[in-house]
Write a structure and sequence with these properties.
This protein is mainly alpha-helical. It has one domain. It has two helices and no strands. It is elongated and about 60 Å long.
């Protein structure tokens, strides 16, 4: 019984860690989006590739974390 209890605690702790990481990623994504909007307002145009690449990286990381949550 203690083993199940410990396992349940470990799963809950892992889920909590993943959720905190997900929230941090979402915060970074929101900051990048805000910076992108401000940058676009200040410039006439052009592709902002570094920001686009960073957004893609954050979105991929969030997708991986969500997949890990689904498989557990």
């Amino acid at each position: 019984m203690n083993r199940q209890s410990g396992s349940a605690r470990a799963r809950k702790a892992h889920a909590s860690l993943v959720l905190r990481e997900r929230e941090a990623l979402q915060g970074r994504l929101a900051a990048l989006e805000r910076a992108s909007v401000l940058r676009e307002q200040g410039q006439g145009g052009g592709d902002n590739t570094p920001t686009s690449d960073a957004l893609d990286t954050v979105q991929e990381a969030m997708a991986k974390e969500e997949e890990l949550l689904r498989t557990r």
